Fold this sequence. Notes:
The protein is built from 7 helices and 26 strands. By secondary structure, the chain is of the alpha/beta class. Magnesium ion binds next to loops.
Amino acid sequence: MLSAAEALDFLLAAVRPIAQIESLPTLAANGRVLAAAQTSHLNVPPMDNTQMDGYAVRAADCAAGSAKLKVSQRIPAGHVGQPLQPGTAARIFTGAMIPQGADAVVMQEQCELEKAADGGLVTIKHAPQAGEWIRRTGEDIQAGSTILTAGTRLRAQELGLAASVGLANVPVVRKPRVAVFFTGDELAMPGEPLKSGAIYNSNRFTLRGLLENLGCDIADYGIVPDSLEATRDTLRQAAAGNDLIITSGGVSVGEEDYIKPAVEAEGRLNMWQIAIKPGKPLAFGEVNRADGGPAAFFIGLPGNPVSSFVTFLLFVRPFILRLQGVADVAPKAFNMRADFAVPKADRRNEFLRARINASGGLDLFSNQSSAVLTSTVWGDGLVDNPPGKTIASGDTVRFIPFSELLY
Ligand code: AMP
Ligand code: MG
């Protein structure tokens, strides 16, 4: 059986990134992946400007520590002042361009104004350094520099940065098209009565939520009965217009598990079973397309709700990001103190649901069963416990927060 790391390497090595690129208004590009590096044609800020409300002065005029200067002009943000004459000060407001001749700003708290009809006199009670409170041209970004590289996911801050250099449109990779279906004769949808022996299809909600977070176009084929024919049929339909097919359930070795034979009949299975807990019966392969085009990728997730959630986060998420050309798909993990014990080692790599407590350590959810979805709501993330390892209270463990995995 492959380790989690080997399985992930295998999956990522198989990815054929989406080649189609589209240009989007920057305002509509949240969550998308940049298809080409972006260069700034501007300096940001484009001009020297003041960081404070106050008075623009010549520092030399104020060197004595107290200077009385005539207020010669008023410069709000967005307006251009006149050159500053020696022995005068300009009333100036945050973001306004520094007038020619001024080389410092004194904040208004260090100044005292004597009002008069012609603007008055200001006493500057501070000897500024040259450059004080001035934001310099190009301090943030210099014209000609690369601001964002290809393969960057555009979050709010990347969009802001792109906008700050005036980019109205950005080239992004086409959204991944992902088909999903849910196998199981026992499944019912919320809103339907629950017949004896049935359960609700919670995976449909979890997996669709996760796919939406990743900005996928989703084709949802709903609940598929436990039969080879129905499974093969749905796989064929799903392969037609999608980059990736994701299924839940039916992927173990039971007589009612039809995913494996169905994928083998409609394409090929390239990997099956990973030495992790929860989530051992994960399957990876390809499903052929009727038109002979490149096969659709296939990932079969286990039916148990926690298993499908965890395996999505660990394997499907990086796969979908890499489909869009994202280079660094590894979530950030943190070394944290376990305020719990795992006295019995498991042969598999365990991903335990844990929560950050008030003293900065980790508590473990009491029931780590792969069917107990409550653990995923209670928890803040996963403790990545290597195979064969026990944990004593006070040990340092590797913790991957859900916040690193859910976008
Ligand atoms: P399976 O992998 O099909 O053997 O399913 C394993 C367990 O997960 C069984 O207890 C199923 O009832 C449950 N299960 C399968 N699919 C879902 C689903 N979509 N939502 C909630 N539980 C499921
Ligand atoms: Mg089943």
